[in-house]
Design brief:
CATH superfamily: Winged helix-like DNA-binding domain superfamily/Winged helix DNA-binding domain
Helix content: over 70%
Largest sheet: 2 strands, antiparallel
Distance between the termini: 24 Å
Oligomer: single chain
Shape: globular
CATH class: Mainly Alpha
Number of helices: 6
Radius of gyration: 18 Å
Strand content: 5-15%
Order of helices and strands: HHHHEEHH
CATH architecture: Orthogonal Bundle
Strand order of the largest sheet: 1-2
Structural class: mainly alpha
CATH topology: Arc Repressor Mutant, subunit A
Length: 147
């Protein structure tokens, strides 16, 4: 078993990486007039057209109230639109608008370049090790959240 000091060192490294990635994303997205949350709403609506508020909230890892606030702003900015769910008239399905599709396409190209640039510094073996470790951590965090 590792020592608490080793856990702290690894945790601080993960936290530092996360902050650097967040800052890079914020800088990139701001050039398109987006926040990180708005970009990921665009991404999830692109990947899952017709998604509802509850499922979108789960993908964003935030409350339905927070998702509603973000979505309302994006509706006002004509980046997305919503339709009443024909199977459940109490819920709505969310879609990218024409403008939203255009913005997503532009920002996502740069986002993919950003991710590639950062991770291209690792060789294939390092990428595979990191993928396995990060996947394991993510699974543990997910199971902890569901407990």
């Amino acid at each position: 078993m590792s020592s608490p000091a080793n856990y702290q060192t690894v945790y601080q490294s993960i936290k530092s990486i996360s902050l650097h990635l967040d800052n890079g994303e914020k800088s990139l997205f701001s050039r398109f007039g987006l926040t990180t949350s708005r970009f990921f709403v665009l991404k999830h609506l692109n990947d899952h057209p017709g998604i509802n508020y509850i499922d979108l909230s789960e993908k964003l890892l935030c409350t339905k109230g927070n998702t509603t606030r973000i979505v309302q702003g994006m509706l006002n900015d004509d980046l997305i639109y919503r339709w009443e769910n024909p199977k459940d008239r109490r819920s709505f399905q969310l879609y990218l608008s024409k403008l939203g599709k255009q913005v997503y396409k532009e920002v996502n190209l740069e986002y993919q370049d950003y991710v590639t640039e950062i991770l291209s510094k690792l060789n294939e073996d390092q990428l595979e090790v990191f993928r396995k470790i990060s996947s394991s951590i993510e699974k543990e965090l997910l199971s902890a959240c569901k407990s």
